Amino acid sequence: MKTSEMKKAKPSAAEGLKELFVDELKDIVFAERALLKALPKMAKNASEPKLAQALQEHITVTEGQVTRLEKIFEMLGESSRGIKCDAMEGLIKEGESILEETEAGPVRDAGIISACQKVEHYEIASYGTLVAFAKTLGEEEIASLLEETLQEEKDADQLLTESAYNSINFEAKEED
């Protein structure tokens, strides 16, 4: 990258890996809390009972993830106040637009799965990075807590994939 293309950092920019790690934790805790507000709407709009149930169950899982993140902040001696996560806000808005642009039924359910999987993939990428940062910083106990959340996100993604492929996508296809 040319020097002329280098972006000047804000005065509050992270200077070290630990500071970046904490900033990323604040980003994901904001994201998880925003998701807790969005998931009930997705569950309410799902037609397939198993999908609605899976989304309801993920609310409980997400609540546990927020609690786990709060514990991590405590361990680090940091505030658990989040930093606005533009990525999650965008993903949630995209999910809301799917609800507005589809009729209730299998097609909407397929859209809900699509929106939820995008969220899961964002979370998987975020937690994977956080685990790597924690290990690099020698925070093994924190890395273990983050790995637990990472596995939960991977499990949720797999459940959504199975729901889509086992019935919902095929039922949506029949709507065409």
Q: How would you characterize this protein structure?
A:
This protein has about 180 residues and is an all-alpha fold. The chain has one domain (about 15-170): Ferritin (Up-down Bundle), CATH 1.20.1260. The chain has five helices and no strands. It has helices at about 15-45, 50-75, 85-100, 105-135, 140-175. Helix 1 runs parallel beside helix 3, helix 1 packs antiparallel against helix 4 and helix 4 runs antiparallel to helix 5. The radius of gyration is 18 Å and the shape is elongated. The chain starts with 16 loop residues before the first helix and ends with a helix.
Architecture blueprint of SSEs:
Layout: H1 17-45, H2 49-76, H3 86-101, H4 106-136, H5 140-175
Helix pairs in contact: 1-2, 1-3, 1-4, 2-5, 3-4, 4-5
